[in-house]
Amino acid sequence: MxxxxxxVGGTFTDVVLQNESTGNIxxxxxxxxxxxxxxxxxxxxxxxxxxxxxxxSQIQSIMHGTTVATNAVLEGKGAKxxxxxxxxxxxxxxxxxxxxxxxxxxxxxxxxxDPLADLIYTRGAKERIDAKGxxxxxxxxxxxxxxxxxxxxxxxxxxxVSLLNSYANPTHEQRIREIAEEIDPNILVSISYDIxxxxxxxxxxxxxxxxSYVRPPMQRYLTNIQNKLEDLNLNSRLSIVRSDGGLMSIPxxxxxPVHTMLSxxxxxxxxxxxxxxxxxxxxxxxxxxxxxxxxxSLTYDGTPRVSRETKVGVFPVKSPSLEVESIGAxxxxxxxxxxxxxxxxxxxxxxxxxxxxxYGSGGEDPTVTDANVVLGYxxxxxxxxxxxxxxxxxxxxxxxxxxxxxxxxxxxxxGIYDIVNENMYGATRVVSVERxxxxxxxxxxxxxxxxxxxxxxxxxxxxxxxxxLPPTPGVLSALGFLQSDIRNEYSRTYIxxxxxxxxxxxxxxxxxxxxxxxxxxxxxxxxxxxxxxRFEVDVRYFRQGHEIPIKVTKEELDNIGVSxxxxxxxxxxxxxxxxxxxxxVELVNIRAIAIGKVVSPSIPMVEEGEVDASGAIIDHExxxxxxxxxxxxxxxxxxxxxxxNKIIGPAIISQKDTTTLVLPGFTAAIDKNLNILxxxxxxx
Length: 684
Known about the structure:
It is a single chain. This protein is α+β, with helices and mostly antiparallel strands. Among the domains are: 76-214, Rossmann fold (3-Layer(aba) Sandwich), CATH 3.40.50; 486-596, Dna Ligase, domain 1 (2-Layer Sandwich). Strand 28 (531-541) and strand 29 form a beta hairpin. Helix 10 (368-375) packs across helix 12 (409-431) and helix 12 packs across helix 13 (451-462). The two termini are 42 Å apart.
């Protein structure tokens, strides 16, 4: 039997097939279909089965990373959302946090986006619960019923209920949902206690509204996929990838789509952590460079960083996600020269339609891919010869940049290549230097279709070595999905000063969350021996505006006490911000994370070869442009490389899903798992 993972990107849909008996992995790509992602998904699954003479009925499970929820927000194509909040707080989404994005003067040109739930579709419920969960004013059910009927008559497609202090007592929210479902059971209702039962009413309301906003399009998409699977008589178990790298069932994804906002990038982070540990490099900075954007993340000691708040467009969303920094830098990023005369690359992208000029699909704008073609870094064909590149069209596109810069075509292309590398270097500093980590103490792992072309150059900028190129970097995000576990989490606000915190009460509160996790794992049919439940607490200095999540176990609290929380908080605070303070510390949230371990077959090792890799050369005559001149740059076929092989740069390593560039002065070695490790120095 086989397992399939599918990652839908802006340009290509990546598909990975794994044999459950042998662990062998095969990858392929197919153009994405932005109008309906499920078309590209099904074409990809059919393609990889046909290429490997496998029957669709042999596929046991499918793991899918989707951008449907993200695109709905970014493109403004979500549902018409109604909002019920506590009377007097109807403008909560407008008041927000009085925040504007950087730089400091952004307020001068920042256009505040319209809330996802319009004020005309917002109603106040007559009720009030205090921060301790005590009912001050009973819910006026007739008034709420009347308001909901009015919203439904105005054509809202999804309803959000987010009441003040409902994190402490959800009874009013739950009753409003019952009333709404009595009125019209076909309109989806999301309540904030189910989505984010924590304090801070703006973040809780915004996150719940976003869940309502993307829920109808996500349900339509999932139904569409299931119908296509049924049409093909494909009875595979379909799982959707969460933003934090875990897996969720179709019913869970349909009801909680806000947890899929960074579904796609999470696969690459998971795979990078696994491969980094596999090569003995547990500290890894990974960058996933596709056709439209680059996602950069950091893994420390084998564990990816998880953020409790992410951004979708300009909206801050409180949903667990692997910490990823995204920038508009990809193979399709367009180079242009503004009136200032300084060359710029991105964030605009040629996408998959029409794509770079070299794709021959009608694109005319000069892109990063076109620059790589002109420099000789990209061979004249991609995807194993299926996709021929138009070198003449690439040269014509880059020539327009060269004329504006008053230079030749090759130096213009080199400028495009260097600038996009500098853009990505800035993103690596955000996830490393700005969080207290030295990038020179990390290796650099490249993934995505365009990543290996720029990996060596980016490693040179960051000082992060070795540069790791896994066997299937072009489809590594999809490979990461195969390593993902079933995952969910439960949290609650629990505000106490540590000096006044009773250890037994804290452990009892964690036990309540433990039972929620245990019940959910049973619903997901996870075997007892595959269950794992972890605990975190959010800690801050007393009345500070932000908190830091701290991992802890019940055994540590039993044996050491709550003082361990203050010690860990001070250490992490000093690492991130460079200082710590001798002031009161308080706990604000507690959390239990439910994990259902998924057993993935191990990737088989390959028989070792000799140091000499010349047998893998498929083009001895190729030349590429480096430091102002063309140099002999042989092209190697990656499928012919074996462990122990070494390649001295400059060299190009070609494979079906990507192309790797080894710069002059660097050496690439093949390890036992067929990873390419690039180090400084040119010696065998």
